[in-house]
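Design a sequence for this backbone.
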């Protein structure tokens, strides 16, 4: 039993490597902070960090990314520490990954591959799994060359070729590329179906005039804890990266006349692989259809500004810039500054202790309260068909059959206007000059 645990641990012992090159864009450089985040990602994936190497140079080396001298240094460290994996904080090209793997003699991953691995472990719903699989195949496609470099070409010349392989001649690599492209097309089709189902659900919600609030934020900012606190949902909320991958939607009553749908989304992170954003658009496209975004920011993290910038950039990429937004500074009980963040559309809370949640509900209400009122409607029996419409378009609370069908319901001003005199106490709207 002990041996198994030891072997399991040894499987994931890694050296972390990052490059801070002058010529790289700021968001692609490795820093001490991004390396610490990489170590947290490795831990989330079930690995252990044995050492860290941060290289400074003017440009990445086209062949080995970090230069031959540094490769030798990392190789020595790998051997001395007994590591079986090297994980880079930067994105590696397929050829760099192949060269490094050959020269270091161990598996080499970049940040994208590590994130994909975590997503593959965490996806629970069939939709989440589809999205992860699609991202993995897109990541794999340009890397097939290295994986099949050891396979010989099947020739058309006959010779010692096995029966069934003689013919037009095609490399195993080309066969696999075709197979992967077919898989990508199939997964994209399946995700289109998922989007169609979502679009139908969305139309129903719009018809019912139920506003949608999407919770977004950097990974581990406390989004699930907030959703749990507000709605009593039982989502596991752990202190680890990417704990929530599949969107969870719950009903939240802001007041007795205002109900909203609250959706938790996957956490964002810097250097998120582009094809992963693409793959997750079926989940994240909810953001562009939401009536309000709640951007949860970890106030206890010194890098909250950089993290908020990453989220803003991804919101832009998903086309949700125009959606109204509340900035919610979470973990404010751990805030180190003198003055807490404040201002219009800014709320400071602690999802853990419940502090500031009343102010947050009030802020959501002020954005989304559609003026709905609780009214009593007296429907004549010959207009009983209107009851079915009320069930669809309003929130019916009680129905009593007397001389008329008496319905108590929460209705929007639009419905009240359409029902007119059937609503108890209804007054026709008058312009000031009509008095």
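Sequence:
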């Amino acid at each position: 039993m002990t041996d198994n645990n030891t072997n399991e641990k040894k499987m994931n012992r890694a050296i972390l490597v990052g490059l801070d090159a002058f010529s790289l864009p700021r968001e692609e450089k490795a820093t001490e902070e991004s390396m610490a985040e990489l170590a947290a990602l490795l831990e989330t994936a079930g690995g252990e960090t044995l050492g860290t190497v941060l290289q400074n140079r003017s440009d990445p080396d086209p062949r080995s990314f970090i230069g031959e001298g540094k490769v030798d240094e990392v190789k020595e460290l790998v051997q001395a520490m007994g590591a079986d994996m090297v994980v880079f904080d930067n994105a590696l090209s397929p050829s760099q990954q192949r060269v490094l793997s050959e020269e270091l003699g161990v598996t080499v991953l970049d940040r994208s591959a590590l994130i994909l691995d975590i997503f593959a472990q965490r996806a629970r719903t069939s939709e989440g799994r589809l999205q992860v699989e699609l991202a993995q195949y897109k990541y794999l496609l340009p890397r097939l060359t290295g994986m099949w470099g050891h396979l010989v070409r099947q020739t058309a010349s006959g010779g010692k070729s096995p029966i069934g392989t003689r013919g037009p001649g095609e490399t195993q690599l080309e066969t696999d590329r075709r197979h992967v492209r077919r898989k990508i097309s199939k997964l994209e089709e399946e995700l289109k179906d998922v989007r169609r189902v979502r679009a139908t659900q969305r139309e129903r919600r719009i018809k019912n005039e139920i506003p949608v609030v999407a919770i977004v934020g950097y990974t581990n900012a406390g989004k699930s804890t907030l959703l749990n606190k507000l709605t009593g949902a039982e989502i596991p909320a752990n202190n680890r990266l990417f704990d929530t991958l599949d969107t969870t939607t719950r009903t939240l009553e802001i007041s007795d006349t205002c109900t909203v749908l609250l959706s938790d989304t996957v956490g964002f992170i810097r250097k998120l692989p582009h094809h992963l954003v693409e793959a997750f658009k079926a989940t994240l496209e909810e953001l562009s259809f939401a009536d309000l975004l709640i951007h949860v920011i970890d106030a206890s993290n010194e890098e909250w500004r950089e993290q908020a910038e990453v989220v803003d950039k991804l919101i832009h990429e998903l086309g949700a810039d125009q959606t109204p937004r509340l900035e919610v500074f979470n973990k404010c009980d751990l805030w180190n500054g003198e003055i807490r963040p404040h201002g219009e559309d800014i709320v400071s809370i602690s999802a853990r202790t419940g502090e500031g949640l009343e102010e947050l509900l009030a802020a959501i209400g002020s954005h989304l309260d559609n003026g709905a009122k609780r009214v009593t409607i007296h429907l004549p029996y010959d207009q009983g068909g209107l009851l079915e419409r009320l069930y669809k378009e309003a929130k019916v609370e009680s129905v009593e059959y007397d001389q008329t069908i008496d319905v108590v319901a929460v209705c929007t001003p639009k419905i009240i206007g359409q029902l007119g005199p059937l609503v108890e106490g209804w007054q026709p709207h008058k312009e000031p000059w009509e008095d």
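Residues 1-10, 148-169 have pLDDT under 50 and may be disordered.
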